[in-house]
Each structure stands twice: as structure tokens, then as C-alpha cells.
Amino acid sequence: xxxxxxxxxxxxxxWDVIGRSSRAMRQGSxxxxxxxxxxxxxxxxxxxxxxxxxxxxxxxxALGRDAEGDELMAACAxxxxxxxxxxxxxxxxxxxxxxxxxxNGLIAAIADAHSLEAAGAKILRPLSDGTLAxxxxxxxxxxxxxxxxxxxxxxEIANDPSLIKADLRVAPAxxxxxxxxxxxxxxxxxxxxxxxxxxxxxxxxxxxxxxxxAAALLAKGAARVLVTDGGSDASEGxxxxxxxxxxxxxxxxxxxxxxxxxxxxxxxxxxxxxxxKTALNDALKSAATYVSGEPV
Length: 296
Description:
Helix 1 crosses helix 8, helix 6 packs parallel to helix 7 and helix 8 (258-271) packs antiparallel against helix 9. The relative contact order is 0.13. By secondary structure, this protein is of the alpha/beta class. The protein is globular and about 50 Å long. The chain is built from nine helices and 14 strands. The chain has a single domain (7-13, 41-95, 117-291), classed as UDP-N-acetylmuramoyl-L-alanine:D-glutamate ligase, CATH 3.40.1190. Strand 10, helix 5 (182-187) and strand 11 (191-195) form a beta-alpha-beta unit.
């Protein structure tokens, strides 16, 4: 590697195929709109946003040795993202994600992340083979981790003594995968970035405010949490202390990637030395800018 990364982004890197319409939609709707194909996946979205904030991320993920994988490698390099740490598979295809969004929000989505799951612990080799770290020199920097990994691998990471020095920042890939983060609650490790629904799934209940959700997650063993609730208050909690802030109110024009933008902006703010309140405020502003359709 010519550059040394200042954060590792572990998880899904794939092609996002997003259909967006300015009209409200329901099941069976057939409306005009725009279809885009862009680099995506939780790890990729976070890495791209971090790079825009001046950080140098490296990706630990799985890509196929196919045309789609080659295109993604080129897209990463063009954005200043380190790719030497990516596992390239000879027999697994590059993953993809497809979503349909209307004026009334996300209508449906399908994530085909089977190759990442099949690659498993192979994507973590740079943390033990000397590329980034080895048993005698543990990795002690920032790690942004997404929940597209298997429960087994996430549990291994949560309890891995070789990562005890790492600053783990963890987010579920979707509400359907929120419970994969339970190992981090049980281990009392990492900073969890979740929305209100995901917090409810982790606590097996429902919440009406991010503050209540943050308190419940801390009570269940979380070391630190950030809970968002769309346009309502977001909360950050650690050591029993919770702060809440209201995000800027904007016209929502896109949804996919908003949570990743929030997480990346928060990490970037703290890496610059921002205090808790400032970092939360910066993250909320960046997420609001993103969903409004403006460049972050």
C-alpha cells in the first residue's frame, strides 16, 4: 500500500441499482422515474463519505474477479479509497443491491450479498497477515463495521482479543439484520449506530423516542450507542449519559445511504477532535443534506 489508512471499512461493497420516482407508490405501481447504478453497500457508502471528509479509508470486503468487481475496484481507487486489502474471489460474483423509492419512502429492496457472506473470515486476513496488523502488532485504529457479515463472523469480531485495541463502530445493514449486532451488546464493545426500529429489534420491544431506545441499549450492555429516528430527535449515549438533538428539517428526495452518511459524518467529526455534541450535530446536518439531494 502506498498510503496508510486511518480507518478500515469492513463489510459490503457492491453495485446499487436504485429506481426513484417523485410520485407516491404502492405495491404494483408503474410510474416514471430515474434508475441509477452506483457504487454502494454499507462499507462502500461509509468509505466514500469518509474520503469526502478528507480521511483515507481502506476496504475489507469480497469482490468477484468479474467485470463488476473490476469496475468497483476502479471506482474505489478514483475516490481515494485503498483497495489492496480487498479479497478477490475467483468463483464468487460481485454482490448487488436493488431498491425502489417513491415520494413516500422506500417501497422495496433486495440485497444480494451472498458472496460477502460466503467469503467469511477471508476478508479479515489483512488484520493478521502483516498487511495491516499481526499477532505481535495489533490494530489499534478506527474500524467501521457493517452488519452484512454473518452472525458467526460478527460474534468473532466482537470477542476477538486481537481487536481489543480497535475503536469499533458498528451499524446493521438493515432492520432485518439488526439482531446480528447482539454479540456487541453481550461483549459490551463498540459504538452501535442504529435507527429506532433496529433498536427495538435489539431490545425486543418498541420505542417512541431515540432517548428511551438509547437508555435501553445501554442497560442491555452496549458500550455506546447512537439512535436516529428520521426527522425526529437523535440520541447518543455512553456511560449512562445521553444527549439528544433534533435534525434539520428538509425535503426528503432520497433515503438509501442516509444512515451510512450519518455514521461516516459522525466518525469524521470525532476524528477531527469534535466533542460529543458537535459530532452529533455535524452528523445530523450531513444526513439531512444527503436526504435533501444536495452533495454532502
